[in-house]
Structures are given as C-alpha cells and as structure tokens.
Design goal:
single chain; elongated; alpha+beta
C-alpha cells in the first residue's frame, strides 16, 4: 500500500470569497506497517478575525504570533 496523508484544519469560516482562512492545521503521513512517519500541527495566523471561537476554540491571542499559512504550506506539500 502507498503512504497516506491525513489532514485536519480549523478555519475562520467556510467562504473564501469572504476571506475566510485556515487558523489551525494538523497533518500526519501514514506508512503501512510503519505508522506515522511525519507530522505537523500548528496554529496559524489567518491575518484577520479568527471567526467563531465558540466552534473551534481558537482566540486572537492564540494566533497573534503564529506563522501564516504561506509560511508552512511547503511543509504540507513536500
């Protein structure tokens, strides 16, 4: 079997036309027979209001010094 990537994100909303962005990402690379061989989990600064804190639990103070999505995107794709 081939390796599989599992990715989970929390967002500021669901509409990119309203400039909703990713506020947290977690990813794992699973290799059959070996388990998780690489992982990444981080809050992200969406460079806007964090959206519905009551849903995802992320506050503005949580992400003020976090990296932006563009700063970690290369780690997800390669």
């Amino acid at each position: 079997m081939k390796p599989r990537a599992v990715i989970d994100v929390e967002t500021t909303g669901l509409n990119p036309y309203r400039h909703d962005r990713v506020g947290e990402v977690a990813a794992g690379l699973l290799v059959p027979g070996q388990g998780i061989v690489a992982e990444l989990a981080t809050l992200l600064n969406p460079e806007r209001d964090v959206g519905p804190t009551r849903i995802h639990g992320i506050t503005a103070s949580d992400v003020i010094n976090a990296p932006r999505f563009v700063d970690i995107a290369g780690h997800l794709g390669g």
